[in-house]
Amino acid sequence: MYDPFVHASPGMGEPHTPSYWVDTAGLPPEDDSAVSGNLSADVVIIGGGYTGLSSALHLALEHGVKAVVLEANQSAWGCSGRNGSFSRISGGRVPLSKLIELHGEDVARQYFQEMKNGLDTVRGLIRDGAIACDVQPDGVYKVASKPEHVHALKREIALYNDVIGYPAKYVAENDVRRVHSGAEAFGAMHMPDGFAMHPLKLAWALHRMARSSGAVIHTSSPVIDWTSSSAGHKLVTPRGVVTARKVIVATNGYTSRELHPKTAGRVLPIHSQIIVTRPMSAQEKQDSLPGTDCMFDTRNLLFYYRRLPDDRILFGGRSAIHGRDAENPKHRESLHAALCRKFPALNGIQVDYNWGGWVAVGKSSLPFIYKVPDVKNVFSAGGYAGSGVSFSIQAGKRLAQMVCGGGNPTAVDFLHQVPQRFPFQHFLRVGQRVAYSWYRYKDARQ
Length: 446
Ligand SMILES: Cc1cc2nc3c(=O)[nH]c(=O)nc-3n(C[C@H](O)[C@H](O)[C@H](O)COP(=O)(O)OP(=O)(O)OC[C@H]3O[C@@H](n4cnc5c(N)ncnc54)[C@H](O)[C@@H]3O)c2cc1C
Description:
Elements lengths: L19 H5 L14 E8 L3 H14 L4 E3 L15 E3 L7 H33 L11 E4 L6 H15 L4 E3 L1 H7 L8 E4 L2 E3 L2 H14 L3 E3 L6 E5 L2 E6 L2 E10 L17 E11 L4 H5 L7 E4 L5 E5 L5 E6 L10 H14 L8 E12 L5 E4 L6 E5 L6 H17 L7 H4 L11 H18 L1
Bound molecules: flavin-adenine dinucleotide.
């Protein structure tokens, strides 16, 4: 499997990794095939996931710019076609209390508003583009997986209510059981905004909309070399060279260290894995997830889960550290064991699908939308830390504004600062292994 820490590029024309989403998304959109020969464009976007596709779409719709997207494999081949399908008010992985401590209440409110804008942007695109992506009713639950977690959950709810002015509410254990039957649910925070949908249908719809608005989307076109001069940027793909005045780097968790020295080392790719069960019986559904809300728990190494429209359960969490270990069956088995612990009625349930992908975590665990330093006219966004469905689409819109307008498009300064590089990069995965062991110990003990 492609490992951004090890390989120079994610391949060329690789098919989508087999998944429930690929099997149920229908026909892929038409694209502009691989770059062939030399071409030039004002704006070139590297990476055809939500960030890149949304940049291309918003450049066309709001700024009249017809960008060229270069995607190494297929449209939405990375996280955007493989994710857990929760489109919610999220971006990064910093608890609200920590965000307030680090940046103050005003910035926390502004950042929350930007995350909410992200969700509204997704809703608007789905509405205006009449996108059929199996949108489920709104509802997000953060479930206390241990009784001791309830207190912290209530403190978090108080911050949402009092500082942000957002109507998160506490749901007591007995009421949680109506939507989360089984075990490991001792109370929950309910957020009224956020919904599950079909992530690949959404991505392919963004692709179609971008293309019909004038964007050109070349698949099977990895950027394998990049040189810059005062005249612009020369992006080399295996079958042709693309010259650009401005470049958006939208490769996020799939960014190899070789792509460009200025973007290297700014995210840690972390593998997240998903299993999907066989369809449940009516009784099994009743005894596990009767609703279709988005669920995640309070563990340090959290699990996220939902019921799919055909009554399967999608269940995900952190898994391998190295790409070479990602297909080890032990990761699937440990997710399966965790699913069965949470929902004893599903004990031994068959798993029909299993796949994973690289989420991008920045050093601050917060996303970034920035102008890359010391190189002319290069912009990038990413670092959503596994919570980027709506925020990456919002970031694409913001990147389009930045590319066209020059300034920072939001008042949230930290979003537009150059993300710090991780120090001691060769030891990062050793540190990750130690951190995972510590979190597993804490999750088991608390
Ligand atoms: C298993 C999993 C579950 C997740 N669940 C959720 C969830 O439920 N909710 C949520 O909010 N977020 C979730 N996420 C995160 C979310 O999917 C991502 O934040 C979002 O899709 C990021 O989109 P992106 O466009 O920035 O990156 P990606 O979709 O990863 O796209 C990057 C693209 O860049 C391309 N690329 C890389 N290098 C090159 C190159 N040299 N030349 C050309 N192309 C290149 C890659 O092929 C890839 O297609 C999940 C992620 C995973 C993996």
